[in-house]
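[Structure tokenization] protein backbone as discrete codes

[Encoding] learned vocabulary of local backbone shapes

[Begin record] amino acids and matching fold tokens:

___
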Amino acid sequence: MRNKKSNFNLKAANEGATFLKTFDLVDQLHQISCPELVAGGRHDWITHVEASILMAQKIPDSELVIFEKSCHYLFIDENREFISRISSFINKRFGLQKIVNTEDSKYEGSISRH
């Protein structure tokens, strides 16, 4: 095994965390002009459910989905439900047909026009 120094920079990580605590674009969310699916995890400690609800309220033409068994990694915690909800949203909003088989593919999928 080779000895290699980590590229992790604690000062940069702390500055990034401080920035994220003050980063706020809520007042600009109303400017989003395309359909949005706001997805949140009930147990997400990074983006709390209340933040997801607020985003959905502020973004015109948005839908909110709260994944009840998920934390921040919706696509892992509730993979099949995540793929199903996104596919359904895309099909409903953009007229695309779901062709992904959630049994065969954990993270990959594709869509095609009718």
The helical segments are 10-22, 49-58, 74-77, 79-94. Confidence is low (pLDDT under 50) at residues 107-114.
